[in-house]
Amino acid sequence: MALGLLLTACASTSTVDKDSQTTQNWSVQRLYTEAHDELMHHNYTHAEKLYEILQARFPYGAYAEQAQLDTAYAYYKDSEPEKALAAIEQFQRLYPKHTNMDYALYLKALIQLNEDKSLVSKIAKQDWSDRDPKANREAYTTFAELLERFPNSKYVNDAREKMQKLLNALAGHELSVARYYMKRGAWLAAVGRAQTIISEYQNTPNVEEALAIMVSAYQNLGEQQLSDDAKRVLVQNFPNSPYRQMPWRDRNDIPWWRYWK
């Protein structure tokens, strides 16, 4: 293993040295063009090396600024989110008034989101609510900053769509925790999670079940008045809800052959 790591490091260093020698007499424009071509052809690792050489030799000017942004994108596409986030945050510090700051914020949110776009994930239709809620909140905050600072940006529409999906995911996470508490008989904790959904994620599809959980949890706590109040709100906002006639039950506990029930 040690020998393998050593050989890999040597190969990497050799590649960098080779690129340095090959590009020794290149102008900044040619360096950027070659790096960008590598980026467009999905040769992300080589693009990163060329951008690194460019920024080391020509640390100032428009090419260096764009190279910093392109480097973040290359790391993002190369599945290195930590490096990508570091690069984009460095870009924000160095060029806070850059004309492409709307794109920088959009890219930053995508990096924080770190969406799994693999074939397996697409087939399984991964639910964002199963992801780390901290990452979801960070991405949502960055998308919100983009909308606030650059309301006319071309990235706004996609940002809004992703923000709604993130809200649904955050509410879904709270709902999953509430379900867990209900199954454990932690009624008060379940009520707390349900209230969070109702107060913070009002425009998500999870509010209906959150109200149903409150109805059931309050009944189990012996708080009939609070249970009735929650049911009135449920019926008023969701007149066709199945929870009008039946108590809340975790669908995961229903046999697969009775899902149509």
In words, what does this structure look like?
This protein has 261 residues and is mainly alpha-helical. The protein has a domain of 72 residues: Serine Threonine Protein Phosphatase 5, Tetratricopeptide repeat (Alpha Horseshoe), CATH 1.25.40.10. It contains twelve helices and no strands. Helix 2 packs parallel to helix 4. 32% of the residues are buried. The C terminus is likely disordered.
Please describe the topology of this protein.
Elements: H1 2-22, H2 28-40, H3 44-57, H4 62-77, H5 81-94, H6 101-113, H7 119-124, H8 133-149, H9 156-184, H10 187-200, H11 207-220, H12 224-237
Helix pairs in contact: 2-3, 2-4, 3-4, 4-5, 5-6, 6-8, 8-9, 9-10, 9-11, 10-11, 11-12
Run of helices and strands:
HHHHHHHHHHHH
Structural class category: mainly alpha
Determine the strand fraction and express it as a percent band.
Answer: under 5%
CATH topology of the domain at 27-98: Serine Threonine Protein Phosphatase 5, Tetratricopeptide repeat
Please give the number of β-strands.
0
Query: What portion of residues is helical?
Result: over 70%
Corresponding CATH superfamily of the domain at 27-98? Tetratricopeptide repeat domain
**Residue-averaged pLDDT:** 87
Overall shape: it is: elongated
CATH class of the domain at 27-98: Mainly Alpha
- Alpha carbon gap, first and last residue: 56 Å
CATH architectural designation of the domain at 27-98: Alpha Horseshoe
Task: Return Rg in Å.
Answer: 25 Å
Low-confidence stretches: 7-13, 118-125, 254-261
